[in-house]
Design goal:
- This protein is α/β, with parallel strands linked by helices and about 220 residues long.
- It folds into 2 domains: about 5-140, 3-Layer(aba) Sandwich (Rossmann fold), CATH 3.40.50; about 160-210, Arc Repressor Mutant, subunit A, CATH 1.10.10.
- The chain has helices at about 15-30, 40-50, 70-80, 95-100, 115-125, 135-140, 160-165, 175-180, 185-200, 205-210; strands at about 5-10, 30-40, 55-60, 85-90, 105-110, 130.
- A 6-stranded parallel β-sheet has the order 2-1-3-4-5-6, sandwiched between helices.
- It is elongated and about 50 Å long.
- The two termini are about 30 Å apart.
């Protein structure tokens, strides 16, 4: 990363020691400057409302008062230019999907090492996307880290498109089957067909494809 431009970062986490440590670490990275720390979404809103506008917010998912979900939704709606890097100790698909749907550009685990945090911030800033190395290896085999997509759009039939829309929600596959008035086995067939077509091996991979292709709204 070159140039004199400082990338401004807000750090939001309800654990004071961790938040302070993250802020100090990020401030030590070349070209990065922490402009605020916050213990919950309410404090994030207050900081931003005072025109302390970061380029990136490192946002803990689980916080008191106003959590990471509501904060991400508010940031995306009111300040879409601010990039959100979600921070969590959980690898649950439902949490990752929800944060991506709410506008997060990346997701990193709290046990990541400093080099990965730097990589995550760089990737969110430069490439508009990052997923934790652990999550990428665990659930997104078949997609590059940069989430490169095929040049040619992939043709999906109507049922596959409908399934993809529901897959980007928080519903279980059983719930999706009921919504589509088909059997769970049929839903499995739709899922497997899309895994094959899109070269992904997880539901998160489907969601990423849909978001990057503009097939669902965040």
């Amino acid at each position: 990363m070159t140039g004199d431009k400082k990338i401004l970062v807000g750090v939001a986490d309800d654990h004071t020691l961790l938040r302070n440590a993250l802020a100090r670490l990020i401030s030590s990275f070349e070209n990065y400057q922490v402009v605020f720390e916050a213990g919950n979404g309410k404090e994030v809103k207050e900081k931003i409302a005072k025109n302390v506008l970061p380029d990136i917010v490192l946002l803990d998912v689980n916080m008191p008062d106003i959590d990471g979900y509501e904060t991400a939704k508010w940031i995306y709606k009111n300040y879409p230019q601010i990039k959100i890097l979600a921070l969590s100790m959980f690898t649950d698909e439902s949490i990752i999907i929800r944060m991506l749907r709410l506008g997060a550009k990346g997701y990193i685990l709290k046990n990541a090492d400093p080099d990965e945090l730097k990589l995550a911030l760089d990737s969110v800033w430069q490439k508009d996307f990052y997923l934790s190395e652990y999550i990428s290896g665990k659930v997104i085999s078949g997609l590059h880290k940069d989430i490169d997509l095929p040049d040619e759009p992939i043709v999906l039939n109507d049922k596959e498109k409908e399934f993809l829309q529901w897959a980007c929600s928080e519903m279980t596959y059983k719930d999706i089957a009921q919504k589509m008035y088909v059997s769970p086995r049929t839903v499995d067939d739709y899922r497997n067909a899309l895994f094959d077509k899109l070269k992904v091996k997880s539901r998160i991979g489907l969601v990423l494809y849909a978001i990057r292709r503009g097939l669902v709204e965040v």
